[in-house]
Amino acid sequence: MVRPFGKKTFTVDVRKSIVRGHELGAHPKILATQFDCSSSQIYRILKNNRVDDGVVHRQSPGRPRTTSRAMDRNILRACREDPRCTSTDIQVSVTSPNVPMPSKRTIRRRLQVAGLHGRRPVKKPLSDESKFNLFGTDGIQWIRRPIGSRYAPQYQCPTVKHGDGSVMVWGCISDTSMGPLKRIGHVANWFRRRRVDLLEWPSQSPDFNPIEHMWEELKRRLKGVRASNANQKFAQLEAAWKSIPMTVVQTLLDSMPRRCQAVIDAKGYPTKY
């Protein structure tokens, strides 16, 4: 008898019947004839399966999955409810105290298996762009959507009429108040009387201010943290800013001689800082 090419799959009921038949004394060759498969497949099923209380348990090789079926459903549900949420957002939403936290790579694999791949959202036609940072960034935004749903409204990039969805904050690390923007008279006189040499800032100076690294630190601390309005976002920024230890600031200040020397060596061109 000619069998179709490829590996034949067996349902749980069929595997259960094969194991039960072998326990009752049926030879594997007889079982192969009865279930229209090869003897090697019967031997493989008998080796990899056992019956406990009428249930077939397959002894799968390799490391067990870190996520349960319930967690897989929660991962898919979180992505479908908000296609723009990142793997970090999903990781926070599906994690509970008594369940191990799945890695971001595991979450992306579960979404890819379900057909939800990362894509750039389509912008709505004839709409102006606005800054919206309460739930995202100004960089590239990604969504996860099923194949063939590129122009579905829920997978398009939203826009806002007015740019009130962001918070603009100011911060500085400076040796003379606000640098060339603002100089306090008595502070300048204090340096002059004590003959303290100050850096001469050109009209277009190289941007090696360590405050840029402070912004990056602030972004890392608020990664995955959302806000429902501008006031809440500002409160989050203020709390995160105050939580940055002074050792971080001191490390940045200690790097200033190296930054200045790098600018000199590069003759004013951009440096790694």
From TrEMBL:
Pfam families: HTH_Tnp_Tc3_2. It is found in: Nucleus. GO terms for cellular component: nucleus. It comes from the Eukaryota. Gene3D superfamilies: Ribonuclease H-like superfamily/Ribonuclease H. One of its GO terms (molecular function) is DNA binding. Residues 72-126 form the Transposase Tc1-like domain. InterPro entries: Homeodomain-like_sf (IPR009057), RNaseH_sf (IPR036397), Transposase_5 (IPR052338), Transposase_Tc1-like (IPR002492). One of its GO terms (biological process) is DNA integration. This is HTH_Tnp_Tc3_2 domain-containing protein.
